[in-house]
Design brief:
Structural class: alpha/beta
Distance between the termini: 76 Å
Number of helices: 24
Shape: elongated
Helix content: 40-55%
Strand content: 5-15%
Length: about 475
């Protein structure tokens, strides 16, 4: 514990390095934005990671965010759901000091050298150098509020407390008689408002007033609070028309509007999903399955039956990976075999897909399950094309075109699955090349992926776990397109 951390009174604080020689109200105010800027510049010089866990924004969002922080600006992150907006806001706490001194015994965290609250000033005058202080850790200096239409000015700013006024013997217009809301309680820290457009215009105006002018009216009483708080927002562009809008005076005072986005590359998406997904211990997820799961999100975002304004959250592949791994674990517990995720486990994760896609009218007519299955088919074809496009599958395709069908085994040990796949000429060799592993369970997963990829490329047809030659009309389309 440092000398500063041991200080328990204002007198002890003024004797410690960094505070020695200062006096209360000496005008040497270090605002939260200054604190963030100083720590940010130090990290930039040393090459430290600025926002751990935020992937895929190194060349887009993070440079804009750093610029806003260096400029000491409040800012808003604007983007669709599942684009790590909340994670970024919370990560900014890493740019705060580990601890800061505040006056002990007051509701609103207040700087003992420059108190802005009436109660803090009164305690400073009463105790002088014996003013008790406490040390506020950075984790407690972040306050977040999810905006909803029913949030009131009292929730964010505060309200007059008649009982408190009677106990203190003050008038109702005295700041000391207030019961503080979330924003004053975030003094000396960061206050984040998620989904800003959902706030009622009256509340947004109150928020603007207290930040720009330092005053607000509570029950007709003008209250002045010159808070030291960094305000950050997030919002969804859909909200501007669907549920509300940001009032012009507040929007005009927000320093920077930073647009977030979904991963631009499947590999980046896979890194995010692997980082966030919580899967059962011991379950193997082959690389081609991980890529398939991520490609499903990319295909869904491009599908015309999925609402583009709502977007497809990055939570879709995260949830899908978790459910697919759980289904593989369930199958292994029953069969007593190695748990390896297969394509059939991805289909078992349909509930993780359908709940995260807002469908257009055409999609509603088709049905969420059917749309999800078609998205999986397209994703399998795309991944197969990238990984296996150069493989020779003519012998396998001819076997199916001769009228043969193959029911892929969904249960039993992996060894039995490998034996069953030998029925299809060339399938085991293709699976071994894709799997890159001697594990029977991984090879079975690879064999099913090869068949699903050919189905996605419209070289086979599929009915549940039964694979067969493509439908006649599909075969004709293929002949006209590729021959």
């Amino acid at each position: 514990m440092t000398a500063i951390a041991r200080a328990r009174t204002l007198g002890e604080l003024l004797e410690t390095p960094g505070y020695a020689g200062r006096t209360p109200f000496d005008g040497k105010i270090r605002l939260v934005q200054d604190e963030v800027r100083e720590n940010l510049t130090r990290k930039l010089r040393s090459g430290e990671e600025l926002f751990p866990g935020v992937v895929g924004y190194d060349d887009t969002v993070i440079p804009q965010l750093v610029n806003a922080l260096l400029a000491r600006q409040n800012f808003i992150l604007l983007g669709l759901r599942g684009q790590a907006k909340s994670r970024i806001l919370r990560a900014i706490t890493g740019l705060l000091d580990e601890t800061v001194p505040v006056i002990d015994g007051v509701d609103m965290p207040d700087d003992p050298l420059n108190p802005v609250g009436a109660e803090g000033r009164h305690l400073l005058e009463a105790h002088g150098l014996d003013l008790p202080i406490r040390w506020l850790p950075r984790a407690e200096r972040y306050v977040e509020k999810l905006a909803t239409p029913d949030v009131t000015v009292a929730d964010l700013i505060g309200d007059v407390d008649p009982i408190k006024a009677a106990r203190l013997g003050t008038s109702l217009g005295d700041t000391r008689s207030m019961h503080f809301g979330l924003l004053p309680r975030a003094n000396r820290g960061i206050f984040a408002v998620n989904e800003l457009a959902d706030l009622a215009p009256k509340v947004q105006v109150a928020l603007f007033n207290i930040l720009q002018e330092g005053d607000v009216q509570i029950k007709g009483y003008p209250i002045r609070l010159e808070l030291d708080v960094m305000l950050v927002f997030s919002a969804n562009p859909e909200d501007y028309t669907a549920r509300g809008k940001i009032v012009t005076p507040l929007k005009d005072r927000i320093g920077s509007e930073i647009r977030t986005h979904y991963p631009t590359d499947v590999r980046l998406g896979m890194d995010i999903t692997a980082q966030e997904a919580v899967k059962a211990d011991g379950v193997t997820v082959p690389g081609f399955i991980s890529e398939l799961i991520e490609e499903i999100a990319f295909q869904a975002r491009e599908d015309g039956r999925v609402d583009k304004m709502s977007g497809v959250s990055q939570r879709l592949p995260i949830s899908l990976l978790e459910v697919a791994a759980a289904n593989a674990e369930r199958r292994s517990l029953i069969a007593g075999d190695e748990p390896v995720v297969r394509v059939s486990d991805v289909y078992a994760g349909l509930p993780a897909i359908t709940g995260k896609m807002e469908l257009e009218y055409e999609g509603e007519l088709k049905g969420a399950d059917n749309v999800a299955k078609e998205v999986i088919r397209k994703a399998a074809g795309a991944v197969y094309g990238r990984l296996c496009g150069s493989m020779d599958t003519q012998k396998l395709e001819k076997w199916f075109e001769d009228g043969n069908v193959f029911r892929f085994p969904q249960s039993g040990e992996a060894g039995a699955g490998v034996k069953a796949t030998r029925e299809v000429p060339g399938l085991n060799d293709l699976a071994a090349e894709v799997a890159g592993s001697s594990s029977d369970a991984v090879r079975v997963s690879a064999a099913e992926f090869v068949l699903e990829g050919l189905y996605g490329r419209k070289k086979l047809s599929r009915a549940e776990e039964l694979y067969a030659a493509p439908e006649p009309e599909t075969r004709q389309q293929r002949g006209g397109r590729w021959n």
